[in-house]
């Protein structure tokens, strides 16, 4: 009688081992597929890190606005990077220059390698007809970033 119990127990162990082996094969195949998929998307991850950096990156953001203003012959009158929120940095920016250059600045914001939303844009002039065509543009922006999980 004990021999039959031993044989039944060993048979059950063999069946359990075969089940575990089959499940491990499935997991290995799934991991192989995941590795292939990761290899396909990994070249784009650097771009994602630029568009949504892992932190606020205040200095880089300020430099981008300064560079963009200079490229479009605009003067930065005032700029504030406010206390950052959970996933974006609020930015208030005041520039002066011509309307076409302000428009180019807006287009430039959309071409930056960082995701920046324009919440509000107010354009005004000190006089109804300015001799040099100088306008003032007040921006309220959101510079997004991907908070670490």
TrEMBL record:
Gene3D superfamilies for this protein: 3.30.70.60
A Pfam family of this chain: PilO
GO terms, biological process: type IV pilus assembly; type IV pilus-dependent motility
Record's protein name: Uncharacterized protein
């Amino acid at each position: 009688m004990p021999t039959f119990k031993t044989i039944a127990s060993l048979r059950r162990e063999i069946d359990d081992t075969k089940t575990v082996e089959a499940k491990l094969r499935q997991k290995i195949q799934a991991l192989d597929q995941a590795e292939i998929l990761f290899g396909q998307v990994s070249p784009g991850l650097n771009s994602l890190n630029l568009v949504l950096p892992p932190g606020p990156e205040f200095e880089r953001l300020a430099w981008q606005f300064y560079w963009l203003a200079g490229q479009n012959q605009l003067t930065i009158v005032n700029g504030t990077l406010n206390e950052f929120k959970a996933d974006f940095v609020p930015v208030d920016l005041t520039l002066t220059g011509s309307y076409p250059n302000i428009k180019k600045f807006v287009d430039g914001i959309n071409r930056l390698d960082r995701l920046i939303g324009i919440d509000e844009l107010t354009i005004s002039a000190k006089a109804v007809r300015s001799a040099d065509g100088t306008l003032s543009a007040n921006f309220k922006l959101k510079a997004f970033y991907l908070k670490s999980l």
